[in-house]
Amino acid sequence: MADTQQVDARAERKVAKLAKQINSFTRSHGGAEAQVAYLGQRGARIVLVGEDGGWGDLVAPSYAIAEQAVAKAGVTTHEEFDGEFAAKVKTGPYEWSRMAGIQVGGPGNG
Q1: Burial of 65 by CB count in 10 Å (0-12 exposed, 13-18 middle, 19+ buried)?
Q2: Alpha carbon of 38 to those of 27, 47, 49, 90: distances in Å?
């Protein structure tokens, strides 16, 4: 029984830490929305998109912990990173250069 309580306490701490990070992002970007993606054995990725178009991500050790953290932070969660949600992301020269912008018409393609 003690092992289960230890695991639960550890998971609760992780949820609280992730929720705190999500809340910090939300405050910095005028609000935020999220999408949780399963990463397999690595856990889950929480993608955050701010109202100002800024974005970031966090990795949780499990999908359940990611969902709990997003719920605890109280942000809107999207099932998919669809076109409407993705359109809120603002990208600049850094993102274009990091995401092979030359191949898709980004800076330097000319």
Answers
A1: buried
A2: 26, 11, 18, 24
